[in-house]
Amino acid sequence: MSESQTTVSQTTAQTVQDPDDDYDRIVSEYGNPKRTIALVLIAAIGMYIMCMSLSTCLSLRIAAIAPDQKNDFYSRIVAIGSFTMLFGQPIIGALSDRTTSRLGRRKPWIIGCLLISVAALAVSGISDNMVVLGAAYVIGVLMMQCGFSIYSVIPVEGVPNRYRARVMGFMGMFGALATSFGSYLAGALVRHPLILMTMPVLLGLITSIPLFVLYKDPVKTKDEVPPLDLKETFSGMIVNPRQHPNYLWVWITRCLTGFTIAAMFSYFTYYMIDGLGVPLDDVGAKAGLLTLLSAPVSILFFTMSGVISDKIGRRKPLVIFAGLCMAAALVLGGTSHSFIQFIIAWELFAVGQAMYLTVDLALCASVLPDQKDAGKDMAMFSVALSIGQMLAPALAPFFINIGASPNYLLFWCVAAVAALVAAAMMPLVKGVK
Predict the structure, then answer these.
(1) 101 — phi, psi (to 5°)?
(2) H or E stretch including 365?
(3) Is the pTM of this model over 0.85?
């Protein structure tokens, strides 16, 4: 699948085929894995606040400006933003693979993307014009996601396989705590739109400072990176399914699960407003309470899923169980008639999401065709989630508007089916337990 026709060296081929033997190579190239892990986890605090709270910030921003048209405006903006990620993420990932900067391959792109994101989101925070707000948000969220996807390459290439799943689990644990904080933050800042829209990315930048300063991002020469051939780069974006079927199956399941996750997290605030009757000024606090209550569950399953997966050497059974949990939670959430009932559904979804996000990233790392293209290939996995995130808001109005009142139950049932299909596809992934 490699977009470069350069022959992979024997060492790299052995690394891809037998990832358990990558410890010595990673130590020699990236330094002490313990330091890398610590820097990645510190950065994860702000990075996950950034990723998990921006959509909530946008939903509250739109609800404050256009409460009667919030579903339509939100769906369009999020769908367009997700569509731009289909092209932006793999291109930026491919460029980072080919970077020969003295700062390394990954750090310059993380810093640059997040700085542009802050500037664009500042515009979305000061404008009440929905076109300007939407365009600025699309640019901001694209650059944010590009920066995050390149950051997510670091634990793949700089952490040995024997530690990778548990590191992903700890990243998710920090993400669970950060998500709760981010929801409270969004609720507190709903009347201060400039700070509301920029603070998540600023926190991502701040917590990443130790990573920028201390991480050993290897400096590559032109001979060590794939050639910068634009035609070849674009032609190599798509995986050859015949050569790498495992990559393709995992990619499809991530797309389906991305739809499932986006369906819950993009519309739970509006469900609380329309379905449970929560006032706008209280939605942020309620969202923060949900994430706070689910944080212990998320922490447990983020950490234990990674440890268990590494110990037993199996990924697929845990991914399947995670899909079943998310499907059940969506149906339960859509039938809730009180906030207490919705809390139960939210907790169950937290179990599935935590387990999935922990183990699936390790599964993705296990099916990468070529370490030289890790940035581009991991970005393509992020694109799979982006497609799901694009389809969820694009299709949501069609299902939600069926009936006399907003039909969130129907929409979430469709998302539950997507989760079940993704789980059912796991046996198709061969060579990975």
Answers:
(1) -65, 155
(2) helix 339-366
(3) no
